[in-house]
Structure formats: C-alpha cells, structure tokens
Write a structure and sequence with these properties.
By secondary structure, this protein is of the alpha+beta class. The chain contains four helices and 15 strands. Strands 6, 7, 8 and 11 form a four-stranded antiparallel β-sheet that branches. Helix 1 crosses helix 4 and helix 2 packs parallel to helix 3. The radius of gyration is 23 Å and the shape is globular.
Length: 310
C-alpha cells in the first residue's frame, strides 16, 4: 500500500486559491446542504461511489444519489446553480443531471484529485477528457451481473458501449464538453482515400480533418473516427453497428487556433474475423461501401463520408 504524502481535498484546494467565502458541509443530509448553501452564488456537490477490490458496488448509483436528486430542484427554486463533481470507479447512473448547471466525472485520479478538481472549477484549465464508457439512462439497460457459479454470456461482440447503440443513454461513449467549442472541416484533399494492396493485405485508407477552436478560451479536442461496415456484406451481421477505429487529441489550441488531425485505417480496421478463412479462421477484408463518421463523440457526428473498398 502506498500512502501519499500530500492529498489535498477539493475544499482545501479551492481555499488555497482565495475563494472569497467557502462554506462546506460533509453531511449527506438535504437540510444541512441547504443551510450551507444559504446566500451562495454557486453550490458544488461532491459525490462518489464506494468500492474496493474485494467489494463490488450494489448498483450504479452514487453514494449521494438521493441527496443530489433532492438538492437540484431545491436549489433551482432558489435560483442557485448546482455543479456536481462525481468521483466514480466506473460507470454510474446520472438521473440528477438534468437539475444541474454543470456536471463532471473523474475516475480514479489518485492523490492529486482535489487539486485537479480545483483547477477545472476555477477555470485554470479547460476539461478535455472523453468518456471511455457509456453512462446509461437506466441501470436496467446494462448487462446484469451473473450471480451463479457458472455464467454463460451470449452477447458476443455486442457488449460495452456498442450494446447501447440505438438505446437512449445519459451520456454517450466518447462524450466530453470543454470550456471552448471546436469546428470540424475536411482538410484540402482530406476526405478518405483508399489504397488497395496486393491480396488486400496492405489495403489502407487515410483522411485528414482540420479542427478549429471557435471558442474564447484555450482548449483541446479529441477527434474520433468511427465506421460502419457495408450493410450487405456477407458475414458482418454479428458486428456492432458502429466501431471506433481511430482518435487523436489535439494540442492546446488558442482561440482561432487550428490543428490537422490525420488518421489512418489499416487493412485490419476494414476486416472481420471469419472462421471460414484457413483451417483455424482468420481476418478477411470486407469490400463494399463503408460509412465513416468523424466527430466529438459516438453520438455527435460532425463529418460523414462513404468509403468504397474494392
């Protein structure tokens, strides 16, 4: 076990930055929270999910879920904005999100968690993280845990975020807002070009996208490339409807700053596993009309274009 020599809390980190009046309560009770919020310009509610290596969570709810569900409407009636900062060990439900002015999730951040939150909350740095999971709208939308001694999983390739495609979610895979905004455009000759290699082994596709910071503050964007297989391609019916195939995080862009994100699809990216290839199965290049989507998340397409593979 490693014990950190310095692990400031969010409260300590904010106080060190000279917040004029910082009232705090460590209670999960609504009345205590409202009393501390009296006269506040903004309320920051910290929530988390308790778990250990040996103890699984009983649900995807945060420990302070009931407080958040009551606190949001109560503060809204007073005209006080609520900001929720959640420290989660994985996926969570967020039924309280619609009653917040802002919400942010940090996964296991280590001893610098409090300092990192203070930097974000005070605007010293713009958030640039993207969700590596989907936050479901309902916990029941997820694959339930198996409590038997022997478990049979039949979801095959349709698991994780791809299993929720077409289902309403709270926050999609790849989602993440910033204090700035970013525009997408094809670079000159940046729409995908396909190169066919001998026997398909070296086939590839490349594309380039210009990302422009159209906001007022410095920020970074993570450009994501998704594809869908040809609708009539033999053997692809088991594939998820959409797959992430590439991503690139821009450097910090000043307002009006630009970055060209160049992404590459290899033959493997355009292939599926086929049990009929060779004696033990193998990868087979799929031919036909692919659809490529470049965007800010799996449900926020900014550019779409077909790619014909021959």
């Amino acid at each position: 076990i490693t014990t950190p020599d310095r692990a400031p809390s969010i409260e300590q980190s904010l106080a060190r930055r000279g917040v004029l009046r910082l009232n705090a309560s460590r209670s999960d009770g609504l009345e205590e929270a409202l009393a501390v919020a009296e006269g506040a310009d903004v309320v920051i509610a910290c929530a988390g999910g308790t778990t250990t290596d040996a103890v699984d969570r009983a649900s995807l709810a945060l420990d302070q879920q009931q407080l958040l569900l009551a606190l949001g409407p109560a503060l809204r009636s007073r005209g006080v904005p609520l900001v929720v900062v959640a420290m989660a060990p994985g996926q969570i439900e967020a039924p309280w999100a619609n009653d917040t002015a802002a919400a942010a999730v940090m996964f296991l951040g280590g001893q610098g968690t409090g300092e990192a939150w203070a930097r974000i909350l005070m605007g010293e740095v713009a958030p640039s993280g993207k969700l590596p999971v989907t936050l479901p709208y309902h916990e029941t939308d997820m694959l339930p845990p198996c409590e038997q001694s022997e478990c049979v999983y039949r979801d095959a390739l349709r698991f994780g975020w791809t299993a929720l495609l077409g289902t309403r979610v709270a926050f999609a895979f790849g989602h993440g807002l910033s204090y700035s905004d970013f525009a997408y455009a094809w670079a000159p000759a940046g729409a995908p070009t396909y190169t066919r290699g001998e026997h398909g082994n070296s086939s590839s596709a490349s594309l380039s996208v210009v990302i422009t910071n159209v906001g007022a503050v410095d920020g970074r964007e993570t450009v994501q490339l998704y594809l869908t297989f040809p609708a009539n391609a033999s053997g692809t019916t088991a594939e998820p409807r959409m797959l992430l195939r590439a991503f690139e995080k821009t450097p910090v862009l000043q307002p009006a700053g630009t970055h060209v994100a160049a992404m590459h699809l290899s033959a493997r990216d355009l292939s599926i596993w086929d049990a009929a290839v060779g004696p033990r199965g193998g990868w087979r290049l799929v031919t036909g009309k692919f659809m490529l989507m470049v965007g800010s998340s799996s449900r926020d397409p900014r550019l779409e274009v077909p790619l014909w593979v021959t």
